[in-house]
Amino acid sequence: MGKHLLTTIFLLLITGVSASAQTEMADTLRSNGKIYVVVVVLATIFAGIFAYLIMLDRKIGKLEKENK
């Protein structure tokens, strides 16, 4: 029981430190205007993944039609 309690306390402390570091980083990026670069890069990555999945779905659909 004590081991689980120590692990829980440790994880809660790490989460608190991580949250404050993330807030500080987000504030810094926002103040420098770099947050928009991060948003554009993430949007580009997700758009690429989405386009790839659509292309893959179409190819799989064609293969399924050919095998029927």
Helix-strand layout with pairing:
Blueprint: H1 2-32, H2 35-67
Protein architecture, described:
With 68 residues, the protein is mainly alpha-helical. The protein folds into two domains: 1-32; 34-68. It is built from two helices and no strands.
The secondary structure category is: mainly alpha
3D shape:
flat
Number of E-state strands? 0
**Helices and strands, in N-to-C order?**
HH
Radius of gyration computed on alpha carbons: 22 Å
What ranges have pLDDT less than 50 throughout 5 or more consecutive residues?
none
Helix content: over 70%
The main sheet comes to:
none
Q: Estimate nothing, just give the exact number of structural domains.
A: 2
- How much of the sequence lies in strands comes to under 5%
Q: Indicate the multimeric state.
A: single chain
Q: How much is the average pLDDT? A: 84
- Number of distinct helices: 2
Cα distance, first to last residue? Answer: 58 Å
Q: What attributes does this structure have?
A:
about 70 residues, mainly alpha
Task: Summarize, please.
By secondary structure, the protein is mainly α. Helix content is 94%, strand content 0%.
